[in-house]
Amino acid sequence: MSLIFSSDECRRSKSPRNVVIDFRNLAAVDIAFLGSRLVLAEFSIGVFGSLLLGLLTLLRSHSVGGTALGAYLLCIGINYVPLLLYAVGLTHFDSARYEIPEETIDKRRMFRKYRRQSLLLLVPLVVPILAAARELQQNPSPGEPSSFHHETRVHGHRVLSYFLLTYLISWVGALLIAVPGFVKHEALSKTSELLMFPVMLLGPSIVGFILTWVVDERSGIEGLLLRMRRVRLPARWYAGLLIPPSLILIVLYSMKVFVSPIFSPGIFLLGIGFGIPAGFLEEIGWTGYAFPKMCGKLSPFGAAIVLGLLWGFWHLPVIDFLGTATPHGRSLALYFLGFIAAMTAMRVLIGWVYINTQSVPIAQLMHASSTGSLVVFSPPRITAAQESLWYLVYVVALWVTVSVVVIFFGNSLTRKSG
Known about the structure:
There is one protein chain. By secondary structure, this protein is mainly α. It has 2 domains: about 5-155, no CATH class; about 225-410, no CATH class. About 75% of the residues lie in helices and about 0% in strands. It has 17 helices and no strands. It is globular. The relative contact order is 0.09.
């Protein structure tokens, strides 16, 4: 999937029908009317200048604002990379005007259109996503049936594309926040640790929205928004939101009685604030986009298991900052395994409430209930080894609950008829 095409490919390549915002055409317009030298210089400065300025800002920053500004500038530099690659290919094959023959008929309209689209360069990491979407939807080469191309290039890779782009945005964003500490050989500050969480949340939500629009077009966005407004549900599904806090409290009070008083649950009510943004933003992608697509190839139970494993591993950059006993030291590997097992079981429960309601909000609330309850009730004075222990017991409780759901609802996670 190269961003630089041969001369023949450049001449026959048109903007994919479903990709309204096409940065290849934006580069072609700039080259056609401003000249290749000026555009290559502009895009090179956009890449290397923004990356250098962002890195210097991060290295010299000692505040939240400075760190955020440095990370933002690095993202802008990454935004310019596809544009620079497009410009190099168009210049090399002298094919800029072949890209936009129809649009040059009404130049005023064309300039207005691409002037508006150029503002998206200011949105962190959106250009690589749209560039990847464009490459997925390239017109088939001569002799290749359109239906075959659409199936193999778009639908065949729509789930894989989602996870690759989500991991890319979330992990690169987290890495950008951590860069100053790595370079200075210093431990990450609490500010940097806290900033990594909201930055990572951008991946699942942004990619979910954009790929829904690219793959399923307008009807897909309308369907997603419809599922995001579906809140009138039977009360029993909202009662399911009590499962995570109930299991956590049962596990911790049992361990307090039978193991040690150190496992007494905490009461950190502000922890609810950690669950709400995580649930709302992440589930736009995990449940709104990925899970329904995966159910097309797997049973809902199987799709939830795979998604749960990928969801748990997605937390890797911040795993040592989760929980109350951070850093986890020698217990990190055991804690991470327990965390992934818990997230996988939780994903089955989220899939269960979603598949029976087709409601994204109930999935968002279930996620928020899980994350929020872990932060609110985690014992405040335990060691890393003790935290890993109670997580493993919680994992057992979750999987017992999942087993009950599967026994009564089957692999489809829906009530069997008859």
